[in-house]
Amino acid sequence: MSGGHTRFRSEIAGPRERGVEFGETWRDRVAATVDGYRELFARGGVRDLHTAGTRVLLAVETWAPYLADEIRGIADGAGLPAETIAALNARTEILASTRTGGECSTIVALRDGDEQPVAAQNWDWYAGHAANWLEWEIPYPDGRRTTTLTEYGIVGKIGVNDRGVGCLFNILHHRADTGTHGVPVHVVARRLLDEADTVTDALRVIGRAPVSASTTITVVGGRRAGRSAVAAELWPEGPGHVLPDPDGMLLHTNHFLSRPGADGDTEPRTDPDTLVRYEVLRRTLHGRGRDLAVGDALAALADHSGGVCVHAPEGRADAFQTLAAVRIDFTTCGLDIHPGPPCRTRGD
Prior knowledge:
Elements: E1 7-9, H1 15-25, H2 27-43, H3 49-63, H4 65-78, H5 82-89, H6 91-95, E2 105-109, E3 118-126, E4 133-139, E5 145-151, E6 158-161, E7 165-171, H7 185-195, H8 199-207, E8 215-221, E9 229-234, E10 240-242, E11 249-252, H9 267-270, H10 273-285, H11 294-301, E12 320-329, E13 334-339, H12 342-346
Parallel strand pairs: 1-4
Antiparallel strand pairs: 2-3, 2-11, 3-12, 4-5, 5-6, 6-7, 7-8, 8-9, 9-10, 12-13
């Protein structure tokens, strides 16, 4: 794994106790993350986090009670209201109708033979949030293990489990997105990592989630989990699904590739950079799915063509930047994380 970022391994404990441990350990970082999102929410006209968080807690309690307990534990440990941490976990849902700008590019290659898949992405978000994420390892009493790159106080995002099931994340926007009454997509990602032994298992978890905002969760299985990949495009009337091309390549940026979701997609009109990034990756990696080297995937993510590797202007905390390039390592069932724009890691 690459250096330069924070790693935290929870003690083996129940959900509430695990949350308390996390909140106590990272009290200042959780508070800073909450403050950063308060500002983003307020910019979009959302200031009542108690009401939003109450709805979120109810949705999570109904769909994944143990994660509602973990959210309450994080809040207790950090000395914050549970509704505030629940609203933080619903950052995608709260920002669904207010956020602008491009975000995230994903590459998956199902290579020939007995090779492990290549699965990597750039995580692009506001530059002012560059210090508000970590790699969190979560062990369970029965031997299961989930590892996720996530933001302080949010239960999951990009990740992999010990059975070799991983997921990558690309936000979407749909005219049917309706706010905070659904299960947060970050909670969906965490539950599939906790539960799934195969890509099929993960898709079942996703299919049962009543969501109110849109996101692509690209699920990838290593050798132990069946060497397959499907991008599940979540939206309130979905999900839709995207499969790799005949050469084993699956790319995603921030617009819908499946129907009927694509018919209500707002991103190509408001933020057409998603189309440009997708076109650049498709052209760069065309026909490479069967033999793509890890280095070539990371090089594609480090390319500035079409804005794949993103840099914020100096001093612009409110502008987008690639906060990390992440590769799922299916041999170790871990994450290979390169903080900051990946071109810096490559020395470009």
